[in-house]
Amino acid sequence: MKLNCAAGQAFAxxxxxxxxxxxxxxxxxxxxxxxxxxxxxPLLEEFCRRADQLPMSQARRTRTKFDVCxxxxxxxxxxxxxxxxxxxxxxxxxxxxxxxxxxxxxxxxLAWPILHDMGHFPASAPRSLRGAVTRGQVSVEEAVDxxxxxxxxxxxxxxxxxxxxxxNLDYSTLRGLTNLLVRTFWKQIEKINPDQKDLKLTEExxxxxxxxxxxxxxxxxxxxxxxxxxxxxxLYLDLQSWAAAEPERxxxxxxxxxxxxxxxxxxxxxxxxxxxxxxxxxRDRQPLLPILSKYVNDRWHRLRTLLDAALTxxxxxxxxxxxxxxxxxxxxxxxxxxxxxxxxxPRHRRTGPRLAGRGICLLAVGHRRDPAAGGPAG
Length: 378
Fold this sequence. Notes:
By secondary structure, this protein is α+β, with helices and mostly antiparallel strands. It has 16 helices and four strands. The protein has helices at 2-12, 20-24, 31-39, 42-52, 58-75, 84-96, 111-117, 129-133, 140-145, 152-165, 171-192, 203-213, 226-245, 247-250, 267-285, 289-310, and strands spanning 318-321, 324-330, 351-355, 360-366. Strand 1 (318-321) and strand 2 form a beta hairpin. The two termini are 42 Å apart.
């Protein structure tokens, strides 16, 4: 305990600058007051004052202040030097290592809007952390470059071709076309024949690619082989037609199309089979829709009742809801939850639901149900 306290004081005094994982491997119950007492930073105090006014539980407000103090400690900076990029990096790394609860949660989600409202972040920064981590549409160059093609000339050709096609395509269709031409077609051609410099494929190279296309990476047969074949065929035919109007730009890339009519002979039949499978899945699942709808509605109303009841009592007070006696306590996060059983279920069966966003967890203090509630006693 004394060693843990000494480490925390050393971090707060900036005697040691820890890495994020090294810092979070310790548990400090009063790190934020330690850090603030040493920093004596008016800007940090203003942030903490605003955090204390959040309409959240005390646990959430404390976590908000801790996130900022942790980020400043790890980066070795003052609050005036904390940029949106730095806080975003802290949030992403915390999620990567499950330091914010799990791999779907970000640290600093409440700290970000406070800093934005203080004018600490530039006006061009998103209003929320979620807006910062959500990427918009990527450019054609970015979409192509993420596949890391080796042939620079072919990379430029595909970028120009896809950009020209983008005038008539929506973004989702354009992304699909990019994946088919870059990842599914040319990236595999480079793996089959690293010396391939243009679209004039030998019969052997094309045959190997078509054999690869028929099987998915997991060994299962590919059901949709026509999509890649049609996209590649359109690439060859478009270049041939465009070369007639702009030979100086496209003529050098004209090549015989390796996809023959025989490769697409059963296209309409396969398309009908695909539509039949989709219709069969719909017919199989449609009878289950009322059951799913009833379950979701019942669960929502049950949790809504629990939430309304829990918000009317103080922390630690016992109350009754739907025949059960429950007590509200501050949620300490996943680290304080009981260890999971062999199938992932909690060993401690008395732990009730967590009220997400409220920092409250319900603890069942007894399992005996009232006879009027219709449940078994025990």
